């Protein structure tokens, strides 16, 4: 499988390392091509990261007939356009989270992929990691008894990063960071969400700087979630039962799982499998899907991508965080932006 990376930023380097590692491990995965907006940047990336070809435009990249999978590694605001570009040129796509700006855009590219019979999936890496099933197995085993709640957080001081604070780049804590606690909760508690309550503090540009939200599920379980671009948090996930609790160290790339009893004594520590850097699981899921003719990955089906986007749309609507591109697409009759539709 020849992998191409659309974009040459930091996250692209992480994916490049994963692809190289898989090839070194003997997998049929090749670091084939990279595309950037300037040829010199693409060539420097290709040389440093071991990719065979470099293109000075995204259009040239997706026109290469040898490309099997395009990884979209550009900022959130560009995911829709770049995913659409790749699909229109017959390429299978692995698109970095957050998948798109809102659920409306997500629905459009998913429909396009379905029409063209192409694989399209969201690169939200904890969905593909072995730790996901490990956590679910522990919950099902009743080692901590009946589970009724969890909490999770993710925060880094990122206000110095331009894309994080700019509304036109879909900035804010939610789409970049809050998406991880949200997915953590919905992986552990896969049932339907009954209610969402939330609040946020905005940055001076109008995007959310920090937020908290509580999900109440139809079965009565609750998830209390927090994300921030102002501070470093402990990145902890805690799943609570009537016989103890489970701690997941670092919810966006779990490092260790700890089980505690009612006396708050750690009774078991479970390491997660060694990895290249965690991105390899997404790549191998795409390879498996292509080999089996699947058009979505079971680890992150289209329905879950849409569901996560709808929750984030509803959160932003309640906070009054509307991106400029959404404002410009408001209907003439004043019914509101795409972010508010469910």
From TrEMBL:
Family of the protein in this entry: Belongs to the Gfo/Idh/MocA family.
Positions of the Gfo/Idh/MocA-like oxidoreductase N-terminal domain: 1-121
Record keywords, A-Z: Oxidoreductase
Database matches in SUPFAM superfamilies: Glyceraldehyde-3-phosphate dehydrogenase-like, C-terminal domain, NAD(P)-binding Rossmann-fold domains
Origin superkingdom: Bacteria
Protein name in the entry: Gfo/Idh/MocA family oxidoreductase
Entry-linked Gene3D superfamilies: Dihydrodipicolinate Reductase, domain 2, NAD(P)-binding Rossmann-like Domain
Secretion signal, residue range per the UniProt entry: none
GO terms assigned for molecular function: nucleotide binding; oxidoreductase activity
Pfam families named among the record's database cross-references: GFO_IDH_MocA, GFO_IDH_MocA_C3
Domain GFO/IDH/MocA-like oxidoreductase residues, every copy: 136-247
